[in-house]
From TrEMBL:
This is Uncharacterized protein. It comes from the Bacteria. It comes from Raoultella ornithinolytica (Klebsiella ornithinolytica).
Length: 108
């Protein structure tokens, strides 16, 4: 289902802008394009507490990684996108975020 949504998301006029926006979320940690409530939840991932990761950051980051995987034809990003949706703890989400970031910097 996420694959289909990502493919449909890329069928927009501003495709390159969308790709840049998702890329900036990971590479620059720039959440400014998102709603304030989503920004707050994404920033909370990087807090040092034991609260579980809520659904909104999982969907936002998972969809972002999925769209980028489709745009770049990158099977590693595709796998990471699927895994992001399953992550519940912040330390694992932080590591997944960094892996996506590093993959984008090194490969794309």
């Amino acid at each position: 289902m996420l694959d289909k949504a990502a493919e449909e998301t890329l069928n927009v006029k501003n495709r390159e802008e969308l790709i840049k926006t998702f890329r900036d979320i990971f590479v620059e940690k720039d959440f400014s394009c998102l709603r304030k409530s989503v920004q707050k939840e994404l920033k909370a991932i990087f807090n040092d507490d034991n609260k579980p990761v809520s659904l909104q950051p999982k969907i936002t980051l998972g969809m972002g990684a999925k769209v980028l995987s489709k745009a770049y034809g990158d099977s590693v990003l595709n796998m990471l996108a699927d895994q992001i949706l399953l992550i519940d703890d912040k330390s694992t989400m932080q590591r997944a975020f960094e892996v996506v970031k590093n993959r984008l910097i090194e490969e794309h």
